[in-house]
TrEMBL record:
GO terms for cellular component: endoplasmic reticulum membrane; nuclear membrane. Residues 1-22 are annotated as: Disordered. Belongs to the glycosyl hydrolase 31 family. It is found in: Endoplasmic reticulum membrane; Nucleus membrane. Pfam families: Glyco_hydro_31_2nd, Glyco_hydro_31_3rd. Putative glycosidase. Promotes myogenesis by activating AKT signaling through the maturation and secretion of IGF2. This is Myogenesis-regulating glycosidase. One of its GO terms (biological process) is carbohydrate metabolic process. Residues 298-444, 505-590 form the Glycoside hydrolase family 31 TIM barrel domain. It is a single-pass type II membrane protein. The gene is LOC127376526. Residues 606-686 form the Glycosyl hydrolase family 31 C-terminal domain. The keyword Hydrolase applies.
Amino acid sequence: MYQIVPVAPGEQQTAGGAGGSPLKKKLAHEGRPLVMAAVLGCVLVLASVVAWCYYSASLRKAQLLKAELLDLNKDGFIIHNQAGAVIFSMTFRSGTLDLDSCSKEGNILSCSRSDSGKLNFFIQTVRLKDTVMCYRVRWEELQNKYLVEHAMAYNDSHWYGGAETATQYWPVKIQGEEEPQPFITSDIYSNRNAFGGILERYWLSSNATAIKINDSVPFHLGWSEKDRTLRFQARYQDSPFRPPEGQPALPELSYRVCVGSDVTSIHKYMVRRYFPKPVKVPSPEVFKQPLWSTWALHKTAVTQEKLLRYASDITKHGFTCSHLELDDRYTADYGEFDFDPQKFPNASGMFDRLREEGFQVSLWTHPFINYDSINFGVAVEKGLFVREPSGELPALVRWWNGIGGILDFTNPEAREWYSSHLHMLKQRYNVTSFKFDAGETSYLPRQFSTLVPLSDPSTFTRRYTEMAIPFSERAELRVGYQSQNISCFFRIIDRDSVWGYELGLKSIIPTVLTISILGYQFVLPDMIGGNAYPNRTTDGKNGLPDRELYIRWLELSAFMPAMQFSIPPWAYDNEVVQIAQKFTELHENLVAPRVLELAGEVLDTGDPIIRPLWWIANDDEAAYKIDSQFLIGDDLMVAPVLQPGKQERDIYLPAGRWKSYKGEHFDKGPMYLTDYPVDLDEIAYFTWVH
């Protein structure tokens, strides 16, 4: 066959020549798209290969940046539970990772660069048992950088732990925007926005996750209500933390996050693994019988005559006494270790008489020596004080009773000098023990030096708590940092005689629960009714706390590990005396035996004596938010009245069978008992029926 190709008018037909035949021209013209299509096809194939290679590399990188249940990206990491839900998330606020510098070897994910230079970053996955997975995280700057900061999101969960605070909430409540501050022990009675005298770098979540910041970190804590985050920061600049001697001031933020099957079991795991435990149970007598302090009643005006009358009144009104606590001020000057002869003209005779009447006595002590004390010159000469940064002069500090030096408890000579004076008092007067006051790092000067340099200022608190060890049977401390193995009573900071959450009655349960979660179980909840300080007392008469407040405070204290009176019930009327007798007997007969049994278990487990409701109901959302009820062990639940003018309250009963103190049975829980009647001389409590 042949093809007839039409020719357009005027088109010349030739058999040869430069233009070629029309057929060839047509074929050449139609061949161009085919070539272009072939080239385009090659390009597409090549692009597909590149895309596949890139996808494969991305897939490998994505797999590389995964550990068990953890996903890492340049801005942070998240942890899932077995069901795939996000239960923990951390954002890197101070820098982003260069993912090209990351590698994975075994169970360790590591990266060597960030957007600002070299670093040592890793996440190590450690499966410790079937139900617990832990992640060790470390971000260490290797070039001059001011700080490292990570922000932990709340993830719609409830968090507990951290520190005693002046306004204490349970669970932790994030309010406002707070730049990271040094996480060190402070006196929150005088500085109500600081972190308290008992603190640990540990938090626990209702999502069954826990985080513990490493001891080596120069740790600062802030928060953001807007972002719903806790801000964890490591820095040395503008900070009381110091790098270890001979090491550069390069910040390092390291911590471990552990995930468990439920909040109670992950907490038990963390406490057993990371917290020291007490080595013995303190005096059973202090758990059974109230101790009586002179402080709220007499303040610094205490005398020999007043102390003897106080002891006589305790006996006259039919109360028992584990020991009397002679508080501030029995010495002539602060920093002395004997009695002011004007206020205590016959101290030896006073102690003999008290002993004959069946009273043991403990004495107040503190780490300060005021400049007008005869011991100030002695301590300067012996080099016993914390010093100025130069190390030559003692650093003067201001505390609530004046100006003086503070003993350097990193110095063995200072420890021995202080301890020998306490032992001398004990032997001379047969003193039973001591109330160790202060000890917070907020009483160290801003710039200071100690014989043994302190990388972490709160180590000073730890060293001070060690001074209580020889007297621990009945000793009392108000500070604690890595001090859970000091087997004495830990007192929460002074309370005001008010109802609310700021150092008032409502703050007691959240504070006791918080320090219990931090591993401090032998809790002294401060004086019944508060301290009756002027201008910090609700509607009291004659300088006394409000009568109803005092009664409700007394009832709550009866269900705490130990009871402490100062303002006596007979300062009010006979009805208050009768209520106090009823509750001190209830404490001794019902509460103390249970508490002592649990105290023995603390030595092995570290588990709280005073427990939150979620301890036995960790799949119950309501139990995570209740801050006005608590458990003693697993089977005694307490619901005090904490509101003025109320003789009823709402009570939450977790699932199980409960029997009320009135004999009622409830076995269809969980349930709310609304407006449950509780008379002024009652506290609602329920026992678990097995």
